[in-house]
Amino acid sequence: MQIDLTDKPRPLDEKWLLFGTLLSNTGNSMIWPVTTLYMTGVLHQSFTMAGLVLMVGSLISMVGSFVGGRLFDNWRPYEAMVITSFIILVAVSSLIIWNGWPVFAFFIWLANFGMGAEQTLVNSFATTIPGEKTRIVFNNMYIVLNIGVVLGTLAVGYLFDYGFNLLMMISAALYFTLMLIIATKFNVPVVRTNTDATGVTTPEETEKVSSVGAPDQRFRLTPVLVAIGALLFITYLSYMLWETVMAPHMKSLGMPTRNYADLWMINGVTIILLQKFVSNWANRRPYQVSVILGSIIFASSFFFLIFVKEFWQIVLVFELLTIGEMLQSPQVPAWVAQITPKEVAGQAQGFVSMMISSGRVIGPIYSGMMMDRGWMKMLFLSVFIIMLIITALLAITIAKRTKKSVENNK
Known about the structure:
Blueprint: H1 14-28, H2 32-41, H3 47-74, H4 77-97, H5 103-126, H6 134-159, H7 164-185, H8 203-210, H9 223-244, H10 246-252, H11 257-282, H12 287-305, H13 311-328, H14 331-339, H15 345-372, H16 376-409
Helix pairs in contact: 1-5, 1-6, 1-7, 2-3, 3-4, 3-5, 3-15, 4-5, 4-7, 5-15, 6-11, 6-14, 9-15, 9-16, 11-13, 12-13, 12-14, 12-16, 14-15
């Protein structure tokens, strides 16, 4: 079949956005789980050095998120996507050959930069999908993202014993396919749209819409955005506890390492099976309802974690956390897209990615300090309390804005 390359580009099809998300997160999930294992087991580096590499990687990912947002808003989204996908491909491909110390760290950080920029750009493109409500697109992306995590972690579990090089070869093949999809399917006109599944115009949305016609559009932090950013920060700081200290904590309770791997499989399968049902409920309500409810459920899991001693109890707590995650995580990027001017969609999604990365930076440091002192229960209790306080502040901020909007309309 002959393809006419002279045709005008069509709007981005959601299926290519979702397929790209699947490839990206599968490839990414074949890298982050083995970084510490490879550094300590093969490169003979300390756990402290491995933690430092991960921390610097998260900081670099924050820089990538900022750059990606600026490029989407102020440069060319398509060219930015091609360049960032090429950067990731170069970094991952280089790890096949140059994976000794310290060059390993350099290429991991280069990949972190590209992944940070790419995630922001993908989220920004998601706000431009025509004919779909923004929150539905993000819900679909969230499901596909978790399918990628399951596939990637499965590959690590079964293939790591065959060598780090094999994993990097498969990951590089995935990112090469991703770059081909971006090069052939993402060259589309960027028509920025912001639609709300509830059909209800919130005070934040009114403020956003009224500023669209302004000649100088800049991303500005409103009180609601600050509260959302703080919530993202503490959410992902807390989430990092499951990626860092839970494995040794479960081992101290007499559980085998395989049980920790089982948790992530259960997490991924739960999200894949239930996310559509949770999304259907959340999509009929204002963003703040699902985000605040999800945050409360998410926080409560850490309170119950103080008392668990058996694996089945940990599974129940992790399922509780997963339900909270499903209510909160996919809604936040869509909510931010709704309450910010469409002209700064890239910077707005960059803000989301940066707050997530900042939580991932501080999480391992905070949990490590608490764990070194034997304060495991205090660690769980502290994140529970902090998250409830921030969630309450978000609710109060929204209530004040709503009250002010009602008074102004009288």
